[in-house]
Amino acid sequence: MRSSKFIIIGDELFKRGVSSPLLKCLTASQAAYVIREIHQGICGMHSGVRSMATRVLRVGYYWPTLKLDCQSYIQKCKECQQFGIPHTLVTDKGRQFIAQGFEDFLRELGIKHLPTSVKHPQTNGQAEAANKVIFRELKKRLGNVKG
């Protein structure tokens, strides 16, 4: 049998990439290991589905259900579900939060922006509490990085 998309070298099956070298086709157990290592291994970074699938291809691996497996793994990852991108963001009406660039950023990520009223301290308290959480998480992730 011949295929223009696949080739067997030795005992291993490879997929021909469009703009990349040959991609080694993996079994289900090999794929599970690669996903786990790329997502949360020593150099893992809990990336999203598209980024994770791209990283798998970039390191030279392929299997037919790659994107579905990445999506399934991320949906089961406790850290990704707990610390993922928020659905809504409550802020005060500070200049930094009503700037067009910030609005564009939120729109690209699919985050609904809820600016609060200045004369409504209950919602401003919620915004301040949310900002505190955001700053704490940023400090945790950035550490002592300056800039």
Model description:
The protein has helices at 28-40, 49-58, 66-76, 78-82, 95-98, 100-109, 121-142; strands spanning 6-9, 12-15, 23-25, 61-62, 88-91, 112-115. The protein has two domains: 6-82, Endonuclease III, domain 1, CATH 1.10.340.70; 88-142, Nucleotidyltransferase, domain 5 (2-Layer Sandwich), CATH 3.30.420.10. The termini are far apart. The relative contact order is 0.09. It has seven helices and six strands; from the N terminus they run βββααβααβααβα. With 147 residues, the protein is of the alpha/beta class.
Please tag this protein with its features.
Nucleotidyltransferase, domain 5; single chain; alpha/beta; Endonuclease III, domain 1; four-stranded mixed sheet; 6 strands; nucleic acid binding; 51% helix; two-stranded parallel ribbon
Query: Which percent bin holds the helix content?
Result: 40-55%
H-E order: EEEHHEHHEHHEH
| Distinct helical segment count | 7
Quaternary structure classification: single chain
* Major sheet: 4 strands, mixed
How many domains, as an integer? 2
Q: So, CATH architecture of the largest domain?
A: Orthogonal Bundle
Secondary structure layout plus pairing:
Layout (H helix, E strand, L loop, with lengths): L5 E4 L2 E4 L7 E3 L2 H13 L8 H10 L2 E2 L3 H11 L1 H5 L5 E4 L3 H4 L1 H10 L2 E4 L5 H22 L5
Parallel strand pairs: 3-4, 5-6
Antiparallel strand pairs: 1-2, 2-3
